[in-house]
TrEMBL record:
Functional description taken from the UniProt entry: Acts on leucine, isoleucine and valine.
Keywords tagged on the record: Amino-acid biosynthesis, Aminotransferase, Branched-chain amino acid biosynthesis, Pyridoxal phosphate, Transferase
Pathway in which the depicted protein is active: Amino-acid biosynthesis; L-valine biosynthesis; L-valine from pyruvate: step 4/4; Amino-acid biosynthesis; L-isoleucine biosynthesis; L-isoleucine from 2-oxobutanoate: step 4/4; Amino-acid biosynthesis; L-leucine biosynthesis; L-leucine from 3-methyl-2-oxobutanoate: step 4/4
Name used for this protein in its record: Branched-chain-amino-acid aminotransferase
Superkingdom, natural source: Bacteria
Region (Disordered): 1-20
EC numbers, comma separated: 2.6.1.42
UniProt keyword annotation of Transferase present: yes
Species, as recorded: Qipengyuania oceanensis
Length: 359
């Protein structure tokens, strides 16, 4: 599909942009352009545009406002040592986007069109890479029901958009490890629900427990399974790995209630290449506490595109608080983070074909 290209008539002035790029934080700063593609029943995908980032004008009856038919993805473009730009496993985001679309009764977007949208936007906004160490251009593809209709059924019109946000650290505190609150009153996803889909509604439901975590002095909430309230699932926006002193690693299995993280999948492969035994199996909150207290569990890491690989230092569960290892970053977590970031920036050889150069 051909994209019409409309350069921004009044982009952010260079000096203002450079200042903002020195300290981008996460999710507050946006580039000049966006990609937009429409879908309509009987017509399919059409009207692909890379143009100025601007407000949308939508009828108040637009279906997404009422029934939350919306999905999104999150991936990053990385500046390479030679000045080029690369994406990390973007075809996996394209695939997961369509899996989310299937669950939310939305049309699939051809993978190549997903990838081309990202290429188009990154090229239009190539001056928007942060100047801070570890910075990247965070890309947010999303799709929503754009038909003005109040009946409860899949919409007949959708919009697919991609916006870009220069990103530094996801965690403001810059602390060496994050502290986690185990939610007792709320769960994130039940069997048969939408836990494995990346839909906005899952995140809306995580806000109260996340606020509870913050109010209790923690950075993030960890959810337990909805049936037995016993098995550790994931954080609001990250998957978890548990590292033991015998060189084995456990991560919760993909049973349909957690998001199949692309970082998670990559870390499983990297850990196995390091000679560690990785098991995808249920792990309970009681076991976590017991293993951490005894010292058998030496590290816990949280991972995701936004948070990369972040050590968990402290946990507050139903039976009180406990510390993981020394409470700071452990060896495996630090090593894995370095390897992953090294591959993403092409400082380490990409032996898996994970890095897609786009410029
Ligand atoms: N779990 C949830 C709920 C998420 O929102 C994310 C972030 O996208 C992840 C896990 C990690 O997924 P990925 O590694 O693909 O970014
Ligand atoms: C990501 O890691 O890309 C996420 O989507 C997590 C969060 C910002 C929603």
């Amino acid at each position: 599909m051909d994209f019409s290209s409309i350069p921004h008539p009044a982009p952010v002035p260079g000096e203002t942009r450079q200042q903002a790029l020195a300290d981008p934080g996460f999710g507050t700063l946006f580039s000049d352009h966006m990609v937009s593609i429409d879908w309509e029943e009987g017509k399919g995908w059409h009207n692909a545009t890379v143009g100025p980032r601007e407000p949308l004008s939508l009828d108040p009856a637009t279906a997404v406002f009422h029934y939350a038919q919306e999905i999104f993805e999150g991936l990053k473009a990385y500046k390479q040592a030679d000045g080029g730009i690369a994406l990390f496993r973007p075809e996996e985001n394209a695939r997961r986007f369509n899996a989310s679309a299937d669950r939310l009764a939305m049309p699939n977007l051809p993978e190549e069109l997903f990838l081309e949208s990202i290429r188009q936007l990154v090229k239009a906004d190539r001056d928007w890479f942060p100047s801070v160490d570890g910075g990247s251009l965070y890309l947010r593809p999303f799709m929503f029901a754009s038909e003005a209709f109040l009946g409860v059924r899949p919409a007949k019109k959708y919009k697919f958009l991609v916006i870009a946000s220069p990103a530094g650290n996801y965690f403001k505190s810059g602390a060496p490890a994050v502290s986690i609150w185990v939610s007792r009153n709320y769960t994130r996803a039940a069997p048969g629900g939408t836990g494995a889909a990346k839909c906005g509604g899952n995140y809306a439901a995580s806000l109260v427990p996340q606020a509870e975590a913050i109010a209790k002095g923690h950075d993030q909430v960890v959810f337990l399974d909805a049936v037995e309230k016993k098995w550790i699932e994931e954080l609001g926006g990250m998957n978890l790995f548990f590292v033991f002193d015998d060189g084995s690693v456990v991560t919760p299995p993909l049973t349909g209630t957690i998001l199949p993280g692309i970082t998670r999948d990559s870390l499983i492969q990297l850990l196995r290449e390091e000679g560690l035994q990785v098991r995808e199996e249920p792990y309970s909150i009681d076991q976590w506490r017991a293993d951490a207290t005894r010292g058998d569990l030496v590290e816990t890491m949280a991972c995701g595109t936004a948070a990369v690989v972040t050590p968990v230092g402290k946990v507050e569960g139903p039976d009180g608080a406990f510390t993981i290892g020394t409470g700071g970053p452990g060896q495996i977590t630090s090593k894995l983070r370095e390897r992953l970031v090294g591959i993403q920036r092409s400082e380490i050889a990409d032996t898996h074909g994970w890095v897609m150069r786009i410029d």
